[in-house]
Design brief:
It is a single chain. The chain is α+β, with helices and mostly antiparallel strands and about 325 residues long. The protein has three domains: about 100 residues, Helix Hairpins, CATH 1.10.287; about 60 residues, SH3 type barrels; about 80 residues, Alpha-Beta Plaits, CATH 3.30.70.100. About 50% of the residues lie in helices and about 15% in strands. The strands form two sheets. It has a five-stranded antiparallel sheet with strand order 4-3-2-1-5. The chain has a three-stranded antiparallel sheet with strand order 6-8-7, covered by helices on one side. The radius of gyration is 43 Å and the shape is elongated.
Length: about 325
C-alpha cells in the first residue's frame, strides 16, 4: 500500500489549517467582542425603554431583538474574517432559494411572532391583567413572541397563541379601575316594590367595598311567573377576581338578610296546573267551556251523567224475521 499519497494529503491539510489558524483565532476574538457588544446593546435598550415607562413585556422584546440582531451581525463578520471568500451576499443568495419553502413551513410560527410584536406594541392588555378568552379566564403571566400564558383562577396555566388573541375578541376585566356587578333578586307579587328597593339599597351601602359613586341601584327588570325581579347593581374598585367574589358574597348575604328581616317574601318558583273536566255537556263548546275552573255559586253546566240519553231505535221482530228468511 502506498502511504505517500495519503501523507501528502495530510501535509497539505495541515498547511491549509496552519494558514487558516490566524483567521480562526481572529474570528473567535471578533465573535467574543460582538457578544459583549450585544449584551451592552441589550442593557442599553432596557434602560431606554424603562425610562419611557414602557411595559415589561415590550422592554423584554426590544432587548431580545437587539441582542439577536447584534449576534447575527457578529456571526456574519466572524465568517467573513475566518473565510475571506465568504460574503453576506453569498449567504443571502443561498437562503433566497429556500426562503419560500421555509416561509410556508413556518407560516404559523411567523404569524404568531408578528402577532406577538403587535400585541406588545399596541398593549390591549399587560402582564398581571386579568383577561377572558373563550372558555379561559385568568391572570396574564407572560407575553412572549409566540404565545401568551395566563394563570387560571384554579391554579392552571393556559398557553394561547398570539395570533388567536390578536384576531379574536378578548375581555380585559382589569382594563379600568372600577367594575359594575349585578344580581337579580325575586320578590313576591304581594310585596311592596318601593320598600324592597329601599331595603336592597340600604343593604348594598352597608357592605364594605361597595362604592358610593357611582351609587348602587335597584331596578325592576322582569315580571316573572312567580316573582317580581329587581336587579341590584353596584360598583367595586379594584375589579380583580378576588374583589369580585368577595363583594358578590357580601352583597347577596346582606340583601337576603335585610329582606327576610323586614318581611319581604323571596318565593320559590311556583306553577298552577288546571285540569280540564271533559264530563260536562258543554265539552267542546269554547264559548261555555270552563277549562277546569271551580264551579262557584252561579249556574254551571250539568254533569254528563245527568243528561238524558236517547233510547236506541228498535226494529220489530217480524221485520227482523222476514229479513232473515228472505232468500239471498
Amino acid at each position: 500500500m502506498n502511504f505517500s499519497i495519503a501523507w501528502q494529503k495530510i501535509n497539505a491539510m495541515g498547511r491549509d489549517f496552519m494558514a487558516l489558524l490566524p483567521n480562526l483565532i481572529l474570528g473567535i476574538v471578533v465573535f467574543v467582542i460582538f457578544l459583549f457588544i450585544a449584551s451592552g446593546v441589550r442593557s442599553l435598550v432596557r434602560k431606554v425603554t424603562a425610562s419611557r415607562q414602557q411595559s415589561q413585556s415590550l422592554t423584554l422584546l426590544l432587548s431580545r431583538l437587539a441582542y439577536v440582531f447584534m449576534l447575527i451581525v457578529g456571526i456574519l463578520v466572524t465568517f467573513t474574517v475566518m473565510i475571506p471568500s465568504f460574503t453576506p451576499t453569498t449567504l443571502i443568495s443561498a437562503l433566497g432559494v429556500g426562503g419560500v419553502a421555509i416561509g410556508f413551513a413556518f407560516k404559523d410560527i411567523f404569524q404568531n411572532f408578528l402577532a406577538g410584536i403587535l400585541l406588545l406594541l399596541t398593549e390591549p392588555f399587560k402582564i398581571n391583567d386579568q383577561i377572558k378568552y373563550k372558555d379561559f379566564e385568568g391572570t396574564v403571566e407572560t407575553i412572549q413572541t409566540r404565545a401568551t400564558t395566563i394563570k387560571t383562577y384554579d391554579g392552571r396555566r393556559v398557553v394561547i397563541p398570539n395570533a388567536e388573541l390578536f384576531i379574536n375578541s378578548v375581555t380585559v376585566n382589569t382594563a379600568y379601575e372600577k367594575r359594575r356587578l349585578q344580581y337579580d333578586v325575586g320578590i313576591g307579587y304581594g310585596d311592596d316594590i318601593a320598600k324592597a328597593r329601599q331595603l336592597m339599597l340600604e343593604a348594598m351601602r352597608e357592605v364594605e367595598g361597595v362604592l358610593s359613586d357611582p351609587a348602587p341601584e335597584a331596578l325592576v327588570v322582569d315580571l316573572a311567573d312567580s316573582t317580581v325581579n329587581l336587579r341590584a347593581r353596584w360598583w367595586i374598585n379594584p375589579p380583580r377576581r378576588s374583589d369580585y367574589m368577595e363583594s358578590m358574597d357580601g352583597v347577596l348575604e346582606a340583601i337576603k338578610n335585610k329582606l327576610v328581616l323586614n318581611g319581604i317574601d323571596l318565593p320559590f318558583p311556583t306553577q298552577q296546573i288546571l285540569l280540564h273536566d271533559q264530563t260536562e255537556e258543554t265539552d267542546g263548546d269554547r264559548r261555555a267551556q270552563r277549562e277546569g275552573w271551580p264551579a262557584g255559586n252561579g249556574d254551571v253546566p250539568r254533569p254528563a251523567r245527568e243528561i238524558p240519553r236517547p233510547e236506541p231505535e228498535t226494529t220489530p221482530a217480524s221485520e227482523e224475521k222476514a229479513t232473515e228468511e228472505k232468500p239471498a
